[in-house]
Specification:
The complex is a heterotetramer, with 3 copies of chain A and 1 copy of chain D.
Chain A: H1 3-17, H2 20-40, H3 47-75
Helix pairs in contact in A: 1-3, 2-3
Chain D: H1 4-8, E1 21-23, E2 26-27, E3 30-31, E4 34-35, H2 36-57, H3 65-85, H4 93-110, H5 122-144, H6 162-208, H7 212-215, H8 217-253
Antiparallel strand pairs in D: 1-4, 2-3
Helix pairs in contact in D: 2-4, 3-4, 3-8, 4-8, 5-6, 5-8, 6-8
Classes of the chains: A mainly alpha, D mainly alpha.
Amino acid sequence: MNVTLQSAKMIGAGLATIGLTGVGAGVGIVFGSLVIAYSRNPSLKNELFGYTILGFALTEAIALFALMMAFLILFT
Amino acid sequence: MNVTLQSAKMIGAGLATIGLTGVGAGVGIVFGSLVIAYSRNPSLKNELFGYTILGFALTEAIALFALMMAFLILFT
Amino acid sequence: MNVTLQSAKMIGAGLATIGLTGVGAGVGIVFGSLVIAYSRNPSLKNELFGYTILGFALTEAIALFALMMAFLILFT
Amino acid sequence: MYNINQTFFSASPLEQFEIIPLIPLELFGLNMSLTNASIFLILSVALSIFWSTLVIYKNKLVPGNWQSVKEIFYDTTLTLVKDNLGKKGYRYFPFIFTLFTIILYCNLIGMVPYSFTVTSHIAFTFGLALAIYIGINIIGFRTHGIKFFTIFLPKGVPLFIVPLVVAIEFVSYVVKVFTISIRLFANMTSGHTLLKIIAGFVWTMISIGGVFVYLQIIPLVLLLALVGLEIGIALLQAYVFTLLTCIYLNDVLEMH
């Protein structure tokens, strides 16, 4: 595979990783609101922590979509 | 297909994936507000969780629009 | 490895590191809400600080994903 | 100087996901060979059956430690189904339980070094998600008949934006298959790649020698933290996959 294509893949993968920006903020927001929610109503053990972890997992998935796209560009 | 076009596609797909940024933050906001809303008024099982999942599904659809665009650029 | 590929790798790694923007904001949000939560209900020693550290660690994981991608581009 | 760095450090961090046919088998033109992926799938099924029967063997009222772990595992799935599907969901509980077990075991076995993570291949996760999706649609048609199409129209939508909402609902309904499978696949793949790259750092640092031999403690500690995170993510993704299956099943059973 010639060099121009190879280098374009590098740049493309780098660009695709920028998609992680929102997810970093998203995870921060989810845990930030967990902390505030917990201080307001410390009936924790029921759903509160469960929803935060669910929210984290679903936000994480968006990061992984972007990373999967980056891998796709880099290696195919 | 000549190389310049191929490499432009790589860069284009990488650029399109940046669209996932907002979705990451959006999903975080949806679940963050679920957590706060639940702590404020834990009558959960009725609408609260339903609306979060609806909100999440619609935000996820935006992520898939961006990814679909990226695939469109990459493979056609 | 010829020059164009080498320079493309540099640019790609640089672009990949932009993914850290969100994580910076996310960590700020988590600790910001810790401060607010602590002021509202200073029962600190229980879960409050623990969740903030958990939130910080998971947001940091996103930063690691972006850095991993940057190193992957830079070195392979 | 014989550079051990080149020989040991594999080609690329993605090399761990290659499928190697162990017993090549040609059956009516189909490649039915036994690969390392199928071996690890069989291994995780055998392990889950073996462990479950072993735990239930001497059923005591006051559970021993292994039995209590199994009970916690059973209980989380039961509450999962009860919360999201309610009484009518109990028919689907065995399916949900096996789904949760198989994904959990595949993920956790993948954490063992030199093993193979079955769920890190899109073929496996997408096949599973598509099968579940088709099953859910069949259930939807059976319970609601032709009225099933009202699923694309949520209640209380003002008339003039109905076509837009239907279009978006349709897209997000179809997209569920892709998001649920890519979520599991991408989490497993990039998690393990991250571990491999950090491990590669430790290795290259040692092979450089000099002061780096002591400096390699930093990536090593990072690697340990990440292994913990990876195990957490393995459990979490199995739970999320099952939870979303329950939610989608509930969407179909209970037309909003």
